[in-house]
Amino acid sequence: xxxxxxxxxxxxxxxxxxTGATVYYTSAGTWSSHAADALVANSPEAIDSLTxxxxxxxxxxxxxxxxxxxxxxxxxxxxxxxREMIRATGPTVRLDLNKSISPIK
Amino acid sequence: xxVVDRNGPIEDSWTTLADxxxxxxxxxxxxxxxxxxxxxxxxxxxxxxxGVEIMGDVDLExxxxxxxxxxxxxxxxxxxxxxxxxxxxRLLRERYDYENDLRAAGxxxxxxxxxxxxxxxxxxxxxxxxxxxxxxxxxxxxSVWYQRASDRTATILDKRHNGGAAPTNGNNAS
Amino acid sequence: xxxxxTFDQTIVRERTSAFRDQVQRxxxxxxxxxxxxxxxxxxxxxxxxxxxxxxxxxPYGTLSVKQLRKLAEIARKYDRGYGHFTTRQxxxxxxxxxxxxxxxxxxxxxxxxxxxxxxxxxxxNVTADHFAGVAPDELDDPRVVSEIIRQWSTFxxxxxxxxxxxxxxxxxxxxxxxxxxxxxIGIQLVKGDGGEVGYRIYVGGGMGRTPVIASLIRPxxxxxxxxxxxxxxxxxxxxxxxxxxxxxxxxxxxxxxxGPEEFTRQVEEEWAEIRxxxxxxxxxxxxxxxxxxxxxxxxxxxxxxxxxxxAKSENAAFARWSETNVHPHKIPGYAAVTLSLKPIGGIPxxxxxxxxxxxADLAEQFSFGxxxxxxxxxxxxxxxxxxxxxTLWQKLSDIGxxxxxxxxxxxxxxxxxxxxxxxxxxxxxPISQRISERFEDLDRQYDVxxxxxxxxxxxxxxxxxxxxxxxxxxxxxxxxxxxxVTLGGAGDETASVGKLIGPGFTADEVIDVVxxxxxxxxxxxxxxxxxxxxxxxxxxxxxKENVYAGR
Lengths: 105, 174, 551
Known about the structure:
The complex is a heterotrimer. By secondary structure, chain A is of the alpha+beta class. Chain A is built from 2 helices and 4 strands, in the order E-E-E-H-E-H. In chain A, a hairpin with a 5-residue loop joins strand 2 and strand 3. The model of chain A is unreliable at 100-105 (pLDDT under 50). In chain B, strands 2-1-8-7-6-5-4-3 form an 8-stranded mixed β-sheet. Chain B is globular. In chain C, the strands form 4 sheets. Chain C has a 5-stranded antiparallel β-sheet. Chain C has a 5-stranded antiparallel β-sheet with strand order 3-14-15-12-11. A 5-stranded mixed β-sheet of chain C has the order 6-7-8-9-10. In chain C, helix 14 crosses helix 16 and helix 16 packs across helix 18 (541-548). The chains are: A alpha+beta, B alpha/beta, C alpha+beta. Chains in contact: A-C, B-C. The B-C interface holds B 56-57, 78, 80-84, 86-88, 90, 94-95, 109, 111-112, 114-116, 118-119, 131, 134, 137-138, 141-149, 156-157, 159-161, 167, 170-172 and C 5, 7-8, 10-11, 14-15, 17-18, 21-22, 25, 30-31, 35, 38-39, 121, 151-152, 154-163, 235, 238-239, 243, 273, 276-279, 281-282, 284-285, 288.
């Protein structure tokens, strides 16, 4: 049975306030520019914890536009929505651009 | 709430009366336009000074008859993006010849203060978090401007063509 | 072109300092994001999908070589080596860091540039005919009044917090190359009864969710009444425009809801009072500004220019390029040249730092040091001697800006779309690339003739798809990119809104659909009849039928 939207695993993403870079919340409580480093939330408690981390980071003026987004079920971290995929990889028409920027911390 | 002008905090003993709150004899009372229309006789008789609070959607023709007797007009922002008070301020000064205290209230931010002053506002009703230092800095941040507005200062056009002199006539309020 | 005096410079310098201070306050938390956002937008800084995007104002699309070289430097130093020219004649950089913004603004200020009011609910960049000053059919140079409006609207204390964004466009000719009827206020220079030049004022045009052609509210306004009239319009909008719903907040909605007659009545009632004040521009200021737009020192050349004619007869590719990319000029022996930023399969409107520098060198050598940006995302060298055209063409070919496709099917407008923009629902650039590649044969493009394709990645319509002869709108349906097709839009003086032909298509399908539409046209056209003329003659049905046959 295919997973419903509610059941899909989730990660927390945002944009770094200073650089604007797309960043992902990691298990170490830091923000990485690589989606692969993201902490995956698989339970309502884990999602609550991401929600709190998002609010804390925004209040600390570290990030803006924070959002909890779906990733595909399965091993690898792959954002489910095209928009989030593009945020993770960079513009599809400029794959030559290296999008990685050093993390905040 | 503290009240400031462009130089800093000022003494202010105005009270804002809700529509159903009793008037206090001898007090300085700010009321809504509705209340002003209904009770202006008793308000002007009882209060030492009367003011009105309006929003950006006000019909200024309704306010017009009372303006000569009002000592403060408070224009409240409905959010910082509400640009109507700027037009209201200019109309009160330049069209309706209102000369007394014109006060901005609501969620405007210090960075809007210079525009408010240029549109005729004289005081600001702010909350405790509002930074008066920032307001002063924001007001001092710009020394020249292109457009004629309610203030009497020389514009860039005056500096280019008028030897820097502000106009001595024209329909701008003092 | 206009050059700043000490007052213009002071404005920009003070703005730069104020913004530096605002950034500091934001980083310290003294300004919330909600408070800071309108302030940074008013300096042209957006948060997009991958980074901050900075939109730099290019007033009425005019650039000096000094400015263009600085933009190339900014691309290299602060961005990823390229910039993007937009449908409002501005330039965007996609990879900006907030922490570097104060330094970037300081560098831009050195060359009289800034991001002031390129975003936010304020008066935006005034756009104008990209052939201003050189077009043979021009009544008067629209850049003079554009500069007047630019100054009047910069930090206007009453009109900086409007219900929504506000866009002006100006044309100096009857043939409207600035799409004025698609703007919040469109101004056309016209002659009055006494032969004097004045303004025809259109209000309430716009794209987006509710595309509408502007209403003519004032057929003739004497020149010296411009600012008082504009203040009356802006004040009416500022007071009565809707603020409860961002999709209903443009002036076009107010004009529609009141009706053009009532809207005009309210404006004129307000104007009757405002015109008594001293807000109108003194004549000496207009004269001062006008002097900056005096024509350069042209040589006296008799046409036809033998070298040019000879080169065309000897080189077919050059001849073809001359047909599409070279335009008439009011001075004999001169021409205006469009640099195509639409290479086959390329990204429309993008230019690398190297290309910008190449163009700057060419402008210096061949066009009095000036470049224009068009709203179709190309560049113009407006004052080239015909005798220099062959050399210019060769050098443009080296830069990659010599594709002979101006006005043809591969001269596509595309917004950045979902590849860059956080508002987008679908990608637009890949669609543009694939259409371009499908039609890569220039002979075929030439045979098809004038055809404007415009692609938007969302309903905000920054790609101006409503004004496309073929318009493509990307939408999101259940997480899939889907593309709707409109036909028969136009941006010139015959302005019309494109008509949706039916249900949308996948990315693969829409390329075929465009080809199908073109083939339908080819099958129906009268001799020398353009796509738009054929469409207007036969209507949408024949196209719909062919596109949806068998679906």
